[in-house]
Write a structure and sequence with these properties.
With 216 residues, the protein is of the alpha/beta class. It has helices at residues 7-21, 89-95, 99-102, 108-119, 129-144, 155-166, 181-187, 198-215, and strands spanning 39-47, 57-66, 69-79, 124-126, 152-154.
């Protein structure tokens, strides 16, 4: 078997079959399809706070990447009505979204449904993407019984690897690499748009991803 069908592929197929069997809503089987070649989706969420267990999503921005282009005409931009958490003054200062701005937004469930259709099976790209995925998965689990299955590509990780390779050997045991987003964008000579806007942040993450791929 190993000669014709490597163990890693066999295990991946077994895992895929198990997940599809236990999928809570079979309409979303498409997320386990083979992704379109050279396509990704850059993603960002704005939230009422930083607690993935209790805070709510209030905005989602996503944009498709195809080849070496950010497809700004293929984007998703949603205001989301929080379920429980009210917006605090501190959170409004960060993302500049007020109660009245999100009051007429789509529900958390509807936002995640739209996002899943937008992503399809494409790998996800983002800056500190783990947080965004955790926020989305909290909404998604009651619907599907599982979280997003797509590959996740962390821009700060790509940037770390890129900067680490440039360090002289004597500095590699204790690397000091600034992973702040504004530092990353400036160092890569990329445009920095107003941060903490979900779509802006998704587009900037997409640009950084493409530049880092180009730099190897």
């Amino acid at each position: 078997m190993a000669g014709d069908f490597p163990l890693a592929k066999w295990l991946a197929a077994l895992k895929r079959g198990w997940m599809l069997y236990h999928l809570g809503d079979q309409r979303f089987r498409f997320m386990w399809d083979d992704p379109p070649p050279d396509e990704w989706v850059a993603l960002d969420c704005e939230t009422t706070g930083l607690n993935t267990r209790t805070d709510d999503i209030i905005a989602i921005g996503a944009v498709r990447i195809r080849g070496n282009r950010v497809m700004t005409s293929e984007r998703l931009e949603l205001l989301v009505r929080p379920d429980k958490q009210r917006l605090t003054a501190d959170s409004v200062r960060v993302h500049r979204l007020r109660e009245q701005d999100v009051a007429q937004g789509v529900s958390q469930d509807e936002a995640v449904m739209q996002l899943m259709h937008f992503i399809g099976s494409r790998p996800l790209v983002g800056y500190y993407l783990e947080f965004d995925v955790a926020m989305i998965n909290r909404v998604l689990f009651p619907i599907l019984g599982m979280g997003l299955p797509q590959e996740q590509i962390e821009v700060s990780g790509l940037y770390y690897d890129y900067k680490y390779r440039q360090l002289p050997p004597q500095q590699r045991d204790h690397p000091a690499i600034d992973l702040r987003f504004d530092t990353l964008m400036q160092d890569l000579d990329l445009p920095a748009w107003p941060a903490h806007d979900a779509l802006n942040d998704a587009v900037m993450a997409a640009l950084a991803f493409l530049k880092l791929r180009q730099l190897g």
